C-alpha cells in the first residue's frame, strides 16, 4: 500500500502459535523491569512467539509490552524520527529500515550496554558499524526457488540452476503438463518488481552506484540484460504478472496453476497448509536461478533485528536486558520452525533451509546504502513500463535514474 | 411502464447489494475456497475469521477507538454546528450569505490538502497518532454541512416562536435552548446521522493521523489487508463485514431520516 | 438577529473552521516554499552482519552536539511545485478530471432513471427499495472499494464469470480496465445520492400541471419532458455541485484497487508524497495545487449558486 507499510514481502513460515513453546519452556525473565518497556514489531509468527515470551514476564512491578502491527515500518519511522522522545523503547526492523534509520542518525548504539556482557551474544546476532553495536539480528530471510518436484521429475528435469534452464523447464512443463503459465514471479509494479530486478541485476554483476558516490549506475548494460531476462520469463507467466505480489504468486503455486516461482523462504511452509494449498507435499525448494550460468544466485540475504532509538522513556539498561531476554536461545529452540533464526541452536527443517541454500549459492546481502531505497522505488515505477512494452528499456532505466537523481538531491545525498 | 420499472429497480438492487453480499460470503470461507480457481458455489462455512479478528486480532480495541472518535465528533460537532446553523437561519444580513458560501467552500476542500500541515505540526508538538487531534480535525471538517443542514431545519421553524419567547423576557440563547431546540429532534437526529457517517467512514484522515494503538476500524482493516498474509486478509474481509453491519441497521431504522437529510439542501 | 448574539452563536463553529481548515492551508503555503534536509557526511565504514563483514562507502547524517541529526532548511520557492507538476501531479489531475466529467452525467441520468422507476412502485415496498438502493452511498467507501476489488481480482467472481464467456480480462493489469473499474465504482457509489435527491423532487412535481398536461392529451414522455424535468432542474444543479465536490476527492478506490498504477488522483498524490516519500514540503505543494484545482472547478458553479440563492431569497 501507500503509507509506507513494511515492504519486505515476507509472510509466515508456519501458522503456529506460542503453543510450540511448551516442551522447552521460557527463559528466566529479566529481574530489573520496572514499569513498562514498549517494543514495536510487525506481526510475523516469530515476532508473535517473542511477544508471548515477553508476556511471561508480567509482574506487579513491570511488564514488557510487544506491540504487533502490520504497519510497524511506518510507526517505527515516525517514532524514531521524533525529535523529542520516541514512544517506543525498541523496535524490530528489517535491514532496509535499519539502513535508513542508521543513516538518519536515529539509532542509539548499544556498545556500552553490551561491554560488561562480552561474549554472551554470538557473532551472528550482532550488527556492528565500525565496532559500534547498532542492532541485534535474530532472524534472516531470502528468496528461493519453489518448484513442483512431481511435475519436474515426470518431465525428467532437475531444478533449474540458472535463468536459461528456468525457461527450458517452463517450456517443457507447458508442453508436457498443459500448464498455461508455469512460471509465477512477484513482478508487481513497485516494490516487488524492483526487488526482482535488483536480484537479477546484482547476479549479473551490476553495481547500482558509481564507486564511492551516490550517482546512479544502473542504467547501463546490466540493467538492460536484467530487463531482458524478466521479459523472457514473462512469456511463461500470467498476463497479470505486473500485478502479482507475493500473495498472488503463493496463490498460483498453492492452486497448482504455476510450477516454478521465486519467493520468500519464510513462505515455504504455507505450501503445505491444507486450508490454503492444494499441492501439499509436492513443492520443493532450491536456490533461486542465477542470471547467467555459473553465476551467483539471483537472491539477496536479509536480516531482522532489534534497534533502540536515540531517546526513549525507559532506561537504556532496562531495555537492553529485555532484549537479551528475548534473544535467549531457549526461545529459538521453542520456536525453531517459526523463522530462520541466526543463533547457532537453530535446526533448519524442511522449510527452514532457504538461507543456507542461498548462501551456498553465493547470494549477496541486500544493499545497505541509505540512498538505495530511493533508487529502488524509482526502478519499481519504471521497470514495469519497460516490461509491459510501453517504453524502451533504455528509456525506462534513464527515466528511473533521472527521477532518482532528483529525489537524491532533495534528500541531500547528491549535491544539488 | 410498470414491468420496466420493476426490472430497473431489481437490477439496481442486485448491483447495489451484490458486492456487499459477495464480501459477506467470502468472509465465511477459508482462503483456499474464497479465491479458488474455479470458484465453487458451495464451500464449507467457517467463522474462524471473525473469531480470530475479534478475539486475537485486537479488533475490539479498534472498535472502541471508532466509538470514542465518532461519539466525540458527533456531540461536539452537532453542538457548535447547531448554534451556527441557528444563527444563520435567523439572520437577514448580508454576511449571513457570505458565511454560508464560506462554509460551502470549506466543504469542497479536499482533506488531503490539509494533511501535510497537520502531520508536520502534530509531529512537531509530539501529539501525532493520538485520537484527540484527529477528533478535532473531524469536528472541523464536519462543520460545513452540519451548518447547512441545521440551518435548513431551523428555517422550517417560524421565527415568531423565538420572537415570542424573547418578548417574554428570554435571551436569545434561552429562546434557542428552551423553545426552539426541543422541537428540533428530527433535525438533530438527521444531522447527527450524517455527522456519524462522516466520522465512522473516514479513512484518509484517520490513517494518516493515528498510530497503531489508536487505529479506528477502517484503518485497521486497510492495514491487515496490505499485510501480505492470507490469514490477515480473511480477517480483513471479516472486519469489512463487521464494520458494515451497524450501517445496515442504521439504514433499516433511519431510512426516512437519511432521505430527508440528503434532500434537505436540495429542496431548500 | 442582533450582531452580538450572532457572533456568539456562530463563533465556535467558524472559529474551529478557521483554526483547523483555513490556517492549515495557509501553513501549507509556507511549507511548500521550503525544504529541510539532513546535513550528510560521506563515510567509509566496516559493516558486520550475520552474513559477514564488508567495507561500505555510504552517507549518513551528521549528528550535532545534542545527539540529534543536523538539519538545514532553506527557501526553494517554486521548486517543489515544479517537481510535483513534472512528476505525478499532471497525470493525477488528468485522471481526476476524467473521473469527475465522466461520472457526473452518468450519475445524474442513472439516478433519474432509478428515481422514475422507484416512483412507480407501490408505496408499501418503496421504503425497503430505497433503503437497499442507497447502500453503496452509505457503506464505508473503503469497504465498498474493497468489495469491488474482491469481485474483480484475478481469482474474483466477476473475472471468472467473464472468462466463462471466453474473455480473460485482468482488470487491474491494464490502463483501460483499471480506469473503467474506478469509474464504475464511482458511479456505483454516487448514483444513490442523485437518486434520492431526484426522487424527493419527483414527489413535489406540481400535480395540477401534470393533470393539465394529461387533459391536453400529452403522452407520458411528453409529460416527463415538459413538466417533470424542468421542475427537477434546480435539483440537478444541486447534484452537479455536490457531486463535483465529492468526486474530486477521489481516494479510496485508487488506494485499494490500483495503488496509483494507471489511475492516480490528486488526493492520492498528496497523501503518498507525504507518507511514502516522507516529504511534507513537497506534499504541501501538491496540497496547494489540489486546492487550486477544486477552486478552478468550483468558482463558476459557486458564483451561479450565489446568484440563484439571492434570486430565490428576493
What are the SSEs and their pairings?
The complex is a heterotrimer of chains A (416), B (268) and C (314).
Chain A: E1 35-41, H1 45-55, E2 62-68, H2 72-81, E3 90-94, H3 95-103, H4 111-114, E4 126-129, E5 132-141, E6 143-148, H5 149-154, H6 163-177, H7 191-203, H8 221-234, H9 246-254, E7 260-264, E8 283-287, E9 300-307, H10 316-326, H11 329-334, E10 340-341, H12 354-360, E11 364-365, H13 372-387, H14 393-411
Parallel strand pairs in A: 1-2, 1-3, 9-11
Antiparallel strand pairs in A: 3-9, 4-5, 5-9, 5-10, 6-7, 6-8
Helix pairs in contact in A: 7-8, 7-13, 13-14
Chain B: H1 2-27, H2 31-34, H3 48-56, H4 59-89, H5 94-108, H6 115-124, H7 131-155, H8 159-167, H9 172-180, H10 185-201, H11 204-209, H12 217-225, H13 230-264
Chain C: H1 3-31, E1 34-38, E2 40-49, E3 52-61, E4 71-75, H2 79-119, H3 123-133, H4 135-138, H5 141-152, H6 157-164, H7 175-203, H8 207-215, H9 220-248, H10 252-258, H11 266-275, H12 280-313
Antiparallel strand pairs in C: 1-4, 2-3
Helix pairs in contact in C: 1-12, 2-7, 2-9, 2-12, 5-10, 7-9, 7-10, 9-12, 11-12
Q: What characterizes the major β-sheet of chain B? A: none
Helix content of chain B: over 70%
**The CATH fourth-level homologous superfamily of chain C:** MetI-like
The H-level CATH homologous superfamily of the largest domain in chain B, spelled out, is MetI-like
CATH architecture of chain C: Orthogonal Bundle
Radius of gyration of chain C: 27 Å
Structural class of chain B: mainly alpha
Ends apart, CA distance between termini of chain B: 31 Å
Largest sheet of chain C, in brief, is: 2 strands, antiparallel
Total separate domains of chain B: 2
Strand content of chain C: 5-15%
What's the assembly state of these chains?
Answer: heterotrimer
Portion in helices of chain C: over 70%
Number of strands of chain B: 0
Which structural class matches the secondary elements of chain C? mainly alpha
Q: How much of the polypeptide of chain B forms β-strand, as a percent range? A: under 5%
- The third-level CATH topology of chain C is MetI-like fold
Amino acid at each position: 500500500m501507500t503509507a509506507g507499510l513494511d515492504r519486505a514481502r515476507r509472510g509466515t513460515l508456519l501458522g503456529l502459535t506460542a503453543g510450540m513453546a511448551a516442551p522447552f519452556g521460557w527463559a528466566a525473565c529479566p529481574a530489573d523491569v520496572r514499569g513498562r518497556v514498549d517494543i514495536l514489531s510487525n506481526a510475523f509468527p516469530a515476532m508473535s512467539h517473542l511477544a508471548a515470551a515477553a508476556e511471561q514476564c508480567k509482574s506487579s512491578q513491570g511488564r514488557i509490552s510487544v506491540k504487533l502491527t502490520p504497519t510497524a515500518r511506518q510507526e517505527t519511522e515516525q517514532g524514531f524520527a521524533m525529535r523529542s522522545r520516541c514512544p517506543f523503547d525498541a523496535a524490530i526492523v528489517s535491514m532496509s529500515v535499519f539502513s535508513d534509520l542508521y543513516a538518519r542518525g536515529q539509532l542509539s548504539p548499544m556498545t556500552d550496554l553490551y561491554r560488561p556482557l562480552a561474549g554472551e551474544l554470538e557473532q551472528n546476532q550482532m550488527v556492528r558499524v565500525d565496532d559500534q553495536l547498532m542492532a541485534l539480528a535474530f532472524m534472516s530471510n531470502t528468496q528461493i526457488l519453489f518448484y513442483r518436484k512431481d511435475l519436474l521429475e515426470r518431465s525428467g528435469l532437475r531444478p533449474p540452476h540458472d535463468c536459461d534452464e528456468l525457461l527450458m523447464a517452463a517450456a517443457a512443463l507447458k508442453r508436457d503438463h498443459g500448464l498455461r503459465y508455469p512460471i509465477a514471479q512477484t513482478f508487481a509494479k513497485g516494490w516487488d518488481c524492483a526487488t526482482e530486478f535488483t536480484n537479477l541485476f546484482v547476479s549479473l554483476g551490476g553495481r547500482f552506484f558509481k564507486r564511492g558516490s551516490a550517482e546512479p549506475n544502473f542504467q547501463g548494460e546490466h540493467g538492460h540484460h536484467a530487463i531482458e531476462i524478466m521479459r523472457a520469463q514473462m512469456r511463461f507467466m500470467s498476463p497479470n504478472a505486473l500485478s502479482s505480489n507475493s500473495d498472488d504468486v503463493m496463490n498460483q503455486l498453492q492452486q497448482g496453476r504455476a510450477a516454478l516461482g521465486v519467493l520468500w523462504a519464510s513462505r515455504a511452509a504455507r505450501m503445505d497448509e491444507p486450508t490454503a494449498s492444494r499441492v501439499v507435499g509436492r513443492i520443493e525448494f532450491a536456490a533461486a536461478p542465477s542470471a547467467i550460468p555459473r553465476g551467483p544466485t539471483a537472491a539477496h540475504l536479509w536480516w531482522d533485528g532489534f534497534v533502540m532509538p536515540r531517546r526513549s522513556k525507559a532506561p537504556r539498561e532496562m531495555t537492553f536486558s529485555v532484549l537479551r531476554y528475548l534473544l535467549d536461545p531457549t526461545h529459538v529452540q521453542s520456536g525453531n520452525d517459526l523463522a530462520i533464526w541466526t543463533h547457532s541452536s537453530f535446526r533448519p527443517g524442511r522449510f527452514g533451509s532457504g538461507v543456507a541454500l542461498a548462501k551456498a549459492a553465493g547470494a549477496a546481502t541486500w544493499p545497505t546504502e541509505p540512498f538505495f531505497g530511493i533508487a529502488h522505488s524509482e526502478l519499481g515505477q519504471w521497470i514495469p513500463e519497460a516490461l509491459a512494452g510501453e517504453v524502451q528499456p533504455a528509456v525506462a532505466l534513464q527515466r528511473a535514474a533521472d527521477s532518482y537523481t532528483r529525489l537524491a538531491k532533495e534528500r541531500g545525498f547528491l549535491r544539488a | 411502464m410498470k414491468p420496466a420499472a420493476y426490472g430497473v429497480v431489481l437490477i439496481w438492487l442486485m448491483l447495489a447489494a451484490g458486492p456487499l453480499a459477495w464480501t459477506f460470503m467470502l468472509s465465511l470461507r477459508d482462503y483456499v475456497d474464497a479465491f479458488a480457481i474455479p470458484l465453487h458455489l458451495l464451500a464449507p462455512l467457517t467463522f474462524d475469521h471473525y473469531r480470530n479478528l475479534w478475539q486475537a486480532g485486537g479488533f475490539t480495541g479498534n472498535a472502541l477507538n471508532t466509538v470514542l472518535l465518532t461519539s466525540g465528533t458527533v456531540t461536539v460537532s452537532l453542538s457548535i454546528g447547531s448554534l451556527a446553523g441557528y444563527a444563520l437561519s435567523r439572520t437577514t444580513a448580508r454576511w449571513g450569505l457570505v458565511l454560508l458560501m464560506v462554509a460551502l467552500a470549506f466543504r469542497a476542500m479536499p482533506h488531503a490538502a490539509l494533511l501535510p500541515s497537520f502531520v508536520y505540526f502534530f509531529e512537531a508538538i509530539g501529539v501525532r497518532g493520538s485520537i484527540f487531534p484527529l477528533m478535532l480535525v473531524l469536528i472541523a471538517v464536519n462543520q460545513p454541512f452540519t451548518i447547512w443542514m441545521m440551518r435548513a431545519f431551523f428555517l422550517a421553524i417560524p421565527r415568531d416562536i423565538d420572537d415570542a419567547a424573547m418578548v417574554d423576557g428570554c435571551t436569545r440563547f434561552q429562546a434557542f435552548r428552551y423553545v426552539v431546540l426541543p422541537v428540533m429532534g428530527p433535525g438533530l437526529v438527521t444531522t447527527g446521522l450524517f455527522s456519524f457517517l462522516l466520522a465512522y467512514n473516514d479513512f484518509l484522515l484517520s490513517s494518516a493521523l493515528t498510530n497503531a494503538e489508536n487505529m479506528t476500524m477502517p484503518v485497521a482493516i486497510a492495514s491487515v489487508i496490505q499485510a501480505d498474509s492470507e490469514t490477515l486478509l480473511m480477517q480483513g474481509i471479516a472486519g469489512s463485514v463487521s464494520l458494515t453491519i451497524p450501517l445496515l441497521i442504521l439504514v433499516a431504522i433511519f431510512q426516512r431520516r437519511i432521505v430527508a437529510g440528503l434532500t434537505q439542501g436540495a429542496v431548500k | 438577529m442582533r450582531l452580538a448574539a450572532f457572533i456568539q452563536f456562530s463563533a465556535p463553529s467558524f472559529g474551529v473552521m478557521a483554526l483547523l481548515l483555513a490556517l492549515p492551508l495557509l501553513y501549507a503555503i509556507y511549507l511548500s516554499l521550503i525544504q529541510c534536509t539532513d546535513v550528510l557526511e560521506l563515510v567509509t565504514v566496516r559493516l558486520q552482519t550475520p552474513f559477514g563483514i564488508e567495507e561500505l562507502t555510504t552517507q549518513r547524517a551528521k549528528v550535532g552536539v545534542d545527539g540529534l541529526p543536523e538539519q538545514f532548511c532553506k527557501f526553494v520557492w517554486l521548486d517543489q511545485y515544479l517537481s510535483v507538476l513534472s512528476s505525478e501531479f499532471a497525470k493525477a489531475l488528468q485522471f481526476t478530471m476524467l473521473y469527475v466529467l465522466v461520472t457526473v452525467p452518468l450519475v445524474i441520468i442513472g439516478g433519474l432513471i432509478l428515481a422514475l422507476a422507484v416512483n412507480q412502485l407501490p408505496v408499501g415496498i418503496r421504503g425497503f427499495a430505497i433503503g437497499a438502493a442507497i447502500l453503496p452511498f452509505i457503506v464505508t467507501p473503503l469497504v465498498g472499494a474493497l468489495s469491488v476489488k474482491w469481485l474483480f481480482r484475478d481469482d474474483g467472481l466477476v473475472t471468472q464469470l467473464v472468462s466463462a464467456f471466453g474473455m480473460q480480462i485482468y482488470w487491474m493489469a491494464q490502463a483501460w480496465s483499471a480506469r473503467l473499474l474506478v469509474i464504475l465504482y464511482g458511479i456505483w457509489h454516487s448514483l444513490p445520492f442523485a437518486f434520492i435527491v431526484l426522487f424527493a423532487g419527483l414527489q413535489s412535481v406540481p400535480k395540477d400541471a401534470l393533470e393539465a398536461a394529461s387533459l391536453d392529451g400529452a403522452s407520458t414522455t411528453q409529460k416527463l419532458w415538459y413538466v417533470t424535468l424542468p421542475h427537477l432542474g434546480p435539483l440537478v444543479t444541486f447534484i452537479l455541485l455536490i457531486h463535483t465536490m465529492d468526486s474530486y476527492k477521489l481516494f479510496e478506490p485508487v488506494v485499494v484497487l490500483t495503488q496509483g498504477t494507471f489511475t492516480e488522483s490528486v488526493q492520492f498524490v498528496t497523501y503518498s508524497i507525504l507518507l511514502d516519500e516522507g516529504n511534507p514540503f513537497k506534499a504541501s505543494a501538491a496540497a496547494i495545487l489540489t486546492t487550486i484545482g477544486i477552486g478552478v472547478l468550483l468558482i463558476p458553479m459557486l458564483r451561479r449558486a450565489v446568484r440563484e440563492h439571492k434570486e430565490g431569497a428576493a
